[in-house]
Amino acid sequence: ERGRLARLRHKPAITLDGERVDLLANIEMPEDTVGALKAGAVGVGLFRSEFLFMGREAQQLARLPDEEEQYQAYRRAVEGMQGMPVTIRTIDVGADKPLDGKSARQEHLNPALGLRAIRWSLADPAMFLTQLRAILRAAAHGEIHLLIPMLAHATEIRQTMALIDTAKAELDARSAVYGQCKLGAMIEIPAAALTLRLFLQHFDFLSIGTNDLIQYTLAIDRADEAVAHLYDPAHPAVLRLVADTIAECRRQGKGVSVCGEMAGDITFTRLLLGLGLRSFSMHPSQILAVKQEVLRADTSKLAAWAQGVLEADDPAFALTLPV
Ligand code: PEP
Ligand code: MG
């Protein structure tokens, strides 16, 4: 089976009815681009940049990676992908990704509902501006898409846009070389999935983070073993939010991808194709298995079948039915 899958590595992911599908890699470090290329990824759909900030040696804790160190890391990632696009997500620490060295938060608070991701960045604009300048400078070396995690509010979108402008102005002031990035937002809070019009006014593309979207839709802490049995990607409410996000982006001609675990789970490949998704980002180890599903799929038949899954009382069962 492994050998058979390996032969798919250089085969383009095109469905039986001729639909081209982008299978992209999720990475945590610039070196991971090696594995992404080996797996046949056509780009990086999610570079979780927080891993540059986490788990640093004790002597480095006092110093988060500065602009130069981040610039070099982002540049290595984009050069590593040899001309293919790289989506860099700004720092998403807090909750399940604690940042050592920052003050411990009070234990009775739920960090998943607290200061994490873009909320953290907006609370520390100097840190955020440093990261934005580093990403913009790396964009002079290849195609970088800038992705913002955990947005929910119009005010957060406005503040983020203003800080991106500020970062560019700072680079202009010192005559630094930088490139332009497409701008994207993660859809991973139900409030965002329910206010897509607002997001599509400001962003070039959306990326659906199903890991958090499931957590927040179902009120299930993704790190809590005691409720893990209720963490259900096939819950009708989750599927509805995913389906509506894909449909609205397609209606408006905007890019949309899924970068949560659902994108790499072959249980959901036919469903996501049927809902119109053409961009999947996942751990490189999943790419060949998903590609095999894509090669067997006929999207002209999957669309009606997918609507049936959405309307089923038991979507997990409906997913197993033949098309
Ligand atoms: C997600 O929430 O689905 C996602 C891709 O982001 P992370 O898993 O890093 O929170
Ligand atoms: Mg997330």
Automatic annotation (TrEMBL):
**Sorted alphabetically, which keywords does the UniProt record give?**
Cytoplasm, Kinase, Magnesium, Metal-binding, Phosphotransferase system, Sugar transport, Transferase, Transport
MF term (GO), any: phosphoenolpyruvate-protein phosphotransferase activity
Could you tell me the superkingdom of the organism this chain comes from? Answer: Bacteria
Query: What cofactors does this protein use?
Result: Mg(2+)
Instruction: Enumerate the spans annotated as PEP-utilising enzyme C-terminal domain.
Output: 4-297
Location within or outside the cell: Cytoplasm
Recorded catalytic reaction(s): these are: L-histidyl-[protein] + phosphoenolpyruvate = N(pros)-phospho-L-histidyl-[protein] + pyruvate
Which EC number(s) does UniProt give? 2.7.3.9
Q: Which family does it belong to?
A: Belongs to the PEP-utilizing enzyme family.
* Function field: General (non sugar-specific) component of the phosphoenolpyruvate-dependent sugar phosphotransferase system (sugar PTS). This major carbohydrate active-transport system catalyzes the phosphorylation of incoming sugar substrates concomitantly with their translocation across the cell membrane. Enzyme I transfers the phosphoryl group from phosphoenolpyruvate (PEP) to the phosphoryl carrier protein (HPr).
What's the protein here called?
Phosphoenolpyruvate-protein phosphotransferase
Species this chain originates from:
Variovorax ginsengisoli
Q: Covered residues of the complete protein? A: 280 to 602 of 602
